[in-house]
Amino acid sequence: MPAYKGNNRSSGGLSGGNSSDGNASDGSGGSSSLPPDLESLIQQGQNRLNRVFSGGSPHGGVVILVAILALVILGIWTAWTTYYTVPSDSVAVVQRFGKYLKEVQPGLHFKLPLGVDKATIVPVKRQLKQEFGFTTPGATDPYQSPQDGKRETEMVTGDLNAALVEWVVQYRISDPVKFLFEVREPSETLRYVSESVMREVVGDRTVDEVITIGRQEIETEALAKMQALSTKYAMGISIDQVQLKNINPPQPVQESFNEVNQAQQEKEKLINEARRDYNKVIPLAEGEKDQRIREADGYRLKRINEAEGDAARFNALLAEYSKAPEVTRRRIYIETLQEVMPSIGSKIIIDERTRSILPFLNLDAQSGNRSADQTGGRP
Question: Which of 41, 101, 228, 244 is spaced 20 to 30 Å from 206 by Cα?
């Protein structure tokens, strides 16, 4: 019995030991389900993260500061790209994911940030220009000034002469949507159109017309053709003015052309002077002619009236003479003497019955007439 109990106790002790080992094995069985290497790697990563966020690492604070700063910059940039301002002389064309969305007027506007919406400012109320053959300092538009000004100005006229032509095209953007989307480079295309049209217009005229008298016609025709091509290509551009600047012949023949130009100016000067004299003399002659015609008409009416008056008086006298001839004759005689006698200086009345007359010489009157003649003939 004692031996049995001992065995039983020893087996119980063994059993208890086995039970303890079994519990230990069960407790460690859940944690040992992963491979030892993977478990150690996960544990190391967790420890490193704990050290970073707890400030255990010497660079942990810098990383946090950089992350916060990046978030702040991203927020500021996002807020900055949500609004935009359109100037008073422009409109904005808004695109969403590259597709046309709308057109907005001047003022403050908002859009989706981070490149979702894109607003392009287009100066529709500002007059733009392109220069050919010369450059204005301070130009900001790359297509305003020529890339090769010498090549652009060299043209051939209709009579196969050469001319150097400089000009300016002033235009406005009439349709911002067409200006941005219908033509890839509308400003560059306009330069090509302007140069092509100007060469065509200059090539239809002689060199004398191009340099001297044909400037206005060239500007008008070039403007019409440029506008027609701009409309045909749907460029969204309205041409306001085409202005010729300097038109000169090539340097080797410039002196001869200057002489021709001076002769042309002298010709125009003489023509203008002749027209001025014509406009001055002709009206005077016309006025004098009208005055003489009026004087002649007045004299004609006067003579007619006098003749009619004399005829009427003669008819009246004739009627009276028919009634009393002797009395009428004497009356006419007396009236005639009344008209004639006052103009006679001296009167000599001779009796009809006197037979001999002694001549009377008036010496005082003759000496007076002689003195008057001498005085009048004296210078």
Answer: 228
